[in-house]
Amino acid sequence: MENWIGIGIWIVMGAVLSLVVKAALKLPEEAPGHTPVLVAMGAFGAVIGGMLGVGIFHFYEPTALSIGGMGSAAVFALFMAWVYRVGVKAWL
Residue 59, exposed/middle/buried by CB under 10 A (0-12, 13-18, 19+)? Predict the structure, then answer.
């Protein structure tokens, strides 16, 4: 049960961090509808990054609520949201 709670925390953390990236990277003219996609990208990135972090740093005792899992979930969520924002910026 602890791992499912950790994965839920990763998802919420990724969504919040993607909104932070949205606030940090302002776009001059933004079409509506980018926020849900950005939140989904952040949550997806947090889950993938969290799994990678747990697999790399805590291979023999995998728990989602570990330093490696939480840290890499945050880093990968920020990366995925940043890539999306920069891609949208380049497209406009």
Answer: exposed
Domain boundaries along the sequence of the chain: 2-91
Range 14-43 average pLDDT:
87
Q: Report how far residue 68's alpha carbon sits from residue 58's, in angstroms, rounded to the nearest whole number.
A: 7
Write down the pTM of the prediction. 0.85
Task: Quickly state the pLDDT bin for 91 (edges 50, 70, 90).
Answer: low
* Sequence letter at residue 56: I
Angle at CA of residue 91, ends 88 and 92, nearest 5°: 90
Q: What's the half-sphere exposure (Cβ side, CA atoms, 13 Å) at 48?
A: 11
